[in-house]
Design brief:
single chain, 244 residues, mainly alpha, 3-stranded antiparallel beta sheet, two-stranded parallel ribbon, 5 strands
C-alpha cells in the first residue's frame, strides 16, 4: 500500500530509509554529497539505474558506449546508448587527465626514440593501418604524434604490446589477400569471420580455440616458411573452402 515495512530496530535507529515507491527527479548537474547520510542513501538507491552511466566513457559488456552507443560507419547496427546521464567525479576526472598526459609523454618517447629511426616509425604507421612508405620522416612523425594526441594507448600498444607478431601477420595476410573484407567483416576463406575491426581480429587470433585456423592463415601468408616442414607434428589440419 506504499508503506515501508520496518523492524522496531530499524524504526528506532534514526537512519534514513527510502521506500520502493519513492520517485526521484534527476537532472543534468544534480550533485550528491556522500558525506550526507540522506544524499548518500538516495544515491545508493538510484546509482544502478540503467539510464545513469558510471562515467562519460563507460561501456557495456559488448564494448559499446553506454552514452553514445555504436554510432559510426563501422557499426552494422548504429544506435544511441541507453544511458542519458553520467557520473562526474572531479577528482577522478583530474586523475584521468593526468594519466592521459603521462601516456602521451610515454608515447612521444617511443616515437622520437625509435631505435630503428624512420624505418621503425614507418612500420609503426603500418601497424596502425597507414602505409607511409616513401613519405618523409617529418610527415611520418607528425602522423604518429597526431595519433598519440588523440589516443596514446594505440602508440604504446604498437611499441610495447605483446601482440606485435600477430599484428604483422594480420597486415601481411591482408596485403596477400589471405584475409579479405566482405560485407564490412574481415574474413578468412569464404566462411570464417574474424571480426569487424583490427583489434577484434587480433583478439580472435589470440583465442586458443582458433589455433588451428590461425596456423592455416600463417601457412597461406608465409608458404615459403612451411615448404621444408610440411610433415608437421602429426596433427592434421584441413584447409577451409576458399573463394575461387
Amino acid at each position: 500500500m506504499g508503506d515501508m515495512i520496518l523492524t522496531d530496530a530499524e524504526r528506532n535507529s534514526g537512519k534514513y530509509f527510502i521506500p520502493e515507491t519513492e520517485v526521484f527527479v534527476i537532472e543534468d548537474g544534480k550533485t550528491f554529497n556522500l558525506d550526507n547520510e540522506v544524499e548518500a542513501r538516495q544515491w545508493e538507491a538510484i546509482k544502478y539505474c540503467p539510464f545513469i552511466a558510471p562515467s562519460r566513457d563507460a561501456k557495456d559488456e559488448k564494448g559499446d558506449n553506454l552514452i553514445d552507443g555504436t554510432m559510426g560507419w563501422k557499426s552494422l547496427n548504429p544506435r544511441y546508448g541507453r544511458a542519458e546521464l553520467y557520473v562526474y567525479v572531479p577528482e577522478e576526472e583530474t586523475n584521468k587527465r593526468v594519466s592521459k598526459k603521462d601516456k602521451f609523454r610515454k608515447a612521444l618517447n617511443f616515437i622520437y626514440d625509435d631505435p630503428k629511426g624512420n624505418e621503425g616509425r614507418i612500420l609503426a604507421c603500418r601497424l596502425l593501418g597507414k602505409n607511409m612508405k616513401g613519405v618523409s620522416d617529418g610527415e611520418v612523425t607528425d602522423y604518429l604524434v597526431s595519433i598519440a594526441e588523440s589516443d596514446p594507448d594505440k602508440i604504446i600498444t604498437v611499441y610495447a604490446g605483446d601482440d606485435i607478431k600477430l599484428r604483422l601477420l594480420f597486415i601481411e595476410a591482408k596485403d596477400k589477400h589471405v584475409i579479405h573484407v566482405k560485407n564490412k567483416l574481415y574474413m578468412y576463406a569464404d566462411d570464417i569471420i574474424l571480426g569487424t575491426t583490427d583489434d577484434a581480429v587480433i583478439t580472435w587470433m589470440k583465442d586458443p580455440k582458433n589455433r588451428k585456423i590461425l596456423e592455416l592463415i600463417k601457412r597461406d601468408t608465409y608458404p615459403e616458411m612451411y615448404q621444408d616442414n610440411d610433415e608437421g607434428n602429426g596433427e592434421e589440419i584441413k584447409s577451409p573452402k576458399k573463394d575461387k
